[in-house]
Amino acid sequence: MSASIQSISLSGRKKQVSNKEMTFWERLYLIAIIKGLAITIKHFFRKKATIHYPEQTRAFSPVWRGRHMLKRDEQGRENCTACGLCALSCPAEAITMKAEERKPGEEHLYREEKYASIYEINMLRCIFCGLCEEACPKDAIYLTLSKELVPSMYEREDFIFGKDKLVMPLEMAMKNAQLKNAN
Amino acid sequence: MDSAFIIEKSVFIVIIFAITMVMAMYSTWAERKVAAFLQDRVGPNRAGWGGLLQPLADGMKLFAKEEFEPDTKNKFLFFVGPAVAMSTALMTSAVIPWGDRLEIFGRTVILQATDIDVSLLYIFGVVSVGVYGIMIGGWASNNKFSLMGAVRAASQMVSYEVAMGLSIIALVMMTGTLSLKEVSLQQQGMNWNVFYQPVGFLIFLICAFAETNRTPFDLAECESELIGGYHTEYSSMKMGFYLFAEYANMFISSTILAVLYFGGYNYPGMHWMVENVGVNAANIIGIGVLFIKICAFIFFYMWVRWTIPRFRYDQLMNLGWKILIPLSIINIIITGICILAFK
Lengths: 183, 343
Known about the structure:
The complex is a heterodimer. By secondary structure, chain A is α+β, with helices and mostly antiparallel strands. Chain A has helices at residues 24-28, 30-44, 85-89, 131-135, 163-166, 170-182, and strands at residues 68-70, 95-101, 114-122, 141-143, 160-161.
């Protein structure tokens, strides 16, 4: 038997709408109201969907792009050479930097002979697209898996993150190097 | 009238006033909690345990807000509106029997501020004055939305007061008294009026929702159409007074519902308690029972708020004039026939 197109319901939830006159009991609304009350009270005892944010965090996706980090190499030297490709690739114009030449005696601080003396990301502009990470030829900037979000602050200036907040801590670089050597 | 009597009554009135205020305060907290739970959220939970200090924080915020007054000719009326709303909301609690009696220092303390024999009429009188608070405030705001809210509130009150009064007449025919104390005494044990007057109770309940301006009858302040209705122009604690008056009204109407139809402070075995345990213990449990009933009604108010959408204005009038009033008249006739047949 071939079904007509009107009677096909792929989801199984199809319902024919009718404009028939309501009966007396339907017009009283009382039954409908009691049904509605039953539905709402069911929700009263249901598990709540709320995530209590600072104490609990949402489960993030494995490809989550969190806060940025400027990397150091195994000897704890900054990778960034201030080429400016990240700033160029940034669609939100969030990144700015100032280049400086490496002085003799600073070889343990910076890997190349040019480095970023100022490196700033405006977290209000950043859209966490990860294009800076893709553009970087020196593996310097990364979007981490950190679940810590940018906190709320009162001043716009506070959202401009400088090198103090972006560069990987030295201990972390040392630890990474040790792990790598052990392997 | 001795001085001890005056002291007793003043203390009692202060306690009732405080309880009404605290109940109104925590109704705001309960409203937010219940709303949240019905919507699968958790509600305020940061200020104090379970958000219990939230009403204090809200009150402090309202006190600290800037007092804004619209440029209106009716400065005095603008000021009087919230005051009328608040005082009428509090006045009704004077005739409610909170319990039977307590025996303190050899005195018999009747748990009612005053037992006038027309307390039902008194409540109706005061409640209908309550709409003046909204009316005056909406008029004095000099704002068309406020005025529209106020006009809606007034017409709503007028239409539903009729049905409410008629539903009460059936109850009065049955109990033969207008005194709330008498009504309470007649409902000892589980002899509640709701079993004899289910239709009357239903009409009264619907009208109580309309009288307190609660959803589904909150046309006076429907946010989506009238901004805030009659309190659009109000700010700071004047606004707080209106909101507070609404919750106080809710508390009082829940109390009236509990006293008239659900046995007031009576509970099964109260007699036995009075004879075997003592008057005070029996009555303190009675007060507790009354408050449980009141809280259940307040919860019901909130539960309904998140279930039923707001009525349209013409639907509201249809329901009031074409359904509830004929229904309550039929209820009176049936009650009369039953009284003739069975008594």
